[in-house]
Amino acid sequence: MGALAAGLLLCAAGCGDGGTDSGTEAGPKGEAGSVASGRSLDAEALRQALPDPHGLPPGWRTGLTPPRAKEVPRARRCAEDTAHGNDCSMFHAIADVQYRAPGDSGSVYWTLLAYPDRRTAETAFANRRKAPEGTREITTPRVGDESTAYSTPAARHATPSTDIVFRVGDAVAKLTYQDADKNKDSAQVLLTLARAQADRLRRAERTVG
Predict the structure, then answer these.
(1) Is the entire prediction scored with pTM above 0.85?
(2) Digit-coded pLDDT (tens) for 42-57
């Protein structure tokens, strides 16, 4: 394992807002580690759940997208029991950020989505579970309540990338390692970052619960 991956594994246990989701606390059906929240996360809760540089090993720096979050206007949200469509949004808040890895070894882009309830989040995750066309599903340990991962090869106008999508309670997260070919350990680095993100989302759910 390269120095970048090793540094992340160490930081996941000891950095300020890190933490890991090893899956060992999950019970039957993998749900015992989840926290049932009384209300859904809002944009501010998602923003605070994003990592900051203090929660990453030395050398990581903010990329093109600084930490940010916003609410979806109520008029744009899907009504209860309405199927997802182009004219409304199933999620109620979104947050994202990009960090560049040390030594020009690629970057990671975070997207967090908050849904009104667990059932809607489960539906949203199910819609994302199948690897998109042109990608290859990869096997990784489970992250959060349920997860999937896939790699995208280089294309004419795109560099290779690796994605992990996972659900924690009412939230769905997607982490993308961009320029994955610049780091032979990109999949392990991404897994470590995803586990830490799942832990932050669980803590956010406890705060609003």
Answers:
(1) no
(2) 999 999 999 998 888 8
Q: Is the dihedral of CA 178, 151, 88, 110 positive or negative?
A: negative
Place of tokens 């807002």: 17
Write the CA distances from 73 to 42, 90, 93, 153, integer angstroms: 12, 12, 9, 36
Q: Give the type of residue at 54.
A: H
Distance CA 3, CA 9 (A): 10
Measured CA to CA, the distance from residue 69 to residue 113 in angstroms comes to 10
**Per residue in 6-21, pLDDT tens?**
444 334 333 434 333 3
